[in-house]
Amino acid sequence: MSKFTHLLLAVLILTCSIAYTSICHASDTIRINGSGNAIDMMNPLMNAYSKTHPDIRIMMGKPLGSSGAVKALLADALDVAVVSRDLKPEEAAQGAQLRKYGKTPLAIVTGKNVRRSGISTKELEEIYIGKTSTWQNGEKIRLILRPLAETDTHILRTLSPGMNDAITAAHARTGMIVAITDPDSYSTISKTPGSIGTTTMVSIISEKLPLTILSLNGVSPSLKSLASGAYPLAKEINFVTTAKTPQATLDFISFIFSAQGRAIAEKTGVLVTTDVAKGSKPH
Q: pTM of the full predicted structure?
C-alpha cells in the first residue's frame, strides 16, 4: 500500500470519526423550554436523570412561555416543549404532538409582609375591580397582573363571572403592574410591598419562594384539595414533541412519566394525572 493510500485511508477514518462524534453529541443533547412553572418542575427531574445518564446534556434557558416554546419546537430549535395549555389547532396542524402530564394549583399569593392567611372570591373581585385598595392595616394593595392572553389570567377568569369582569376592569386602569412571565410574576410579588398576585405551587416549592400562600374560600391550594375538586384553580403541565423529536429526548420523557419521575414531580407540587403504566399518548 502506497504512502498516498495510507494518507487517504487516515483522512477517511478521521473524517468518519468526526462525523460519528458530531452525531453522538447531537443525539445526546436535549433542548428543553416552555412556561416558567413547567421549567421549575423540570430542574429536579433533570438532576435525577443526569445522575444515571451522565452522557446526556440537557439544555434549558430562560422560559419562552408556552407559545414561544412550541414555535421554537416547530422550528427545530428545541427537542421538547413543556407547556401550560392544550395545543392550538394550527400548532397541531404543523406537527406538534401533546402528551398530557399533570397540573399544579394556581395559588393566590402575597408578599411576606401582608398579614393574611386567606381570601374569598368576593374579596378578590373587589381588589381587582378597584373597590378595595388597602389591606386591613391601611397598607396600599399593589395588584400584580398577568397579560390578558396569559394562561394564569384565563384560569383566574373562570373563578366567577364577577372575577371575569374585575380582571377586565383591572387591565383597563392605568399604572397597573403587569408581570410578563411566571418568574417575573413571583419575583415582583416577593419584592413589592402590599402585593397580591398568582403563581403556581410548583414554582413556590421548587424555587423556595418567600411568599404567603392564601387559602381561597377556606381551601388551601394543595394537591389533595386539587385532586378532590375542592380547590378550583389549576395550571396544566404538558409535554409537546414532534415526529422529529430525537430518541434521547423520548427516553428522558419516558423517565418523567415513570413511577420515579412522577414521585419527583409530585414532591414539587404537581398532581400527575397520566397513567403511570402507559404514560400519555401523543395526540
A: 0.83
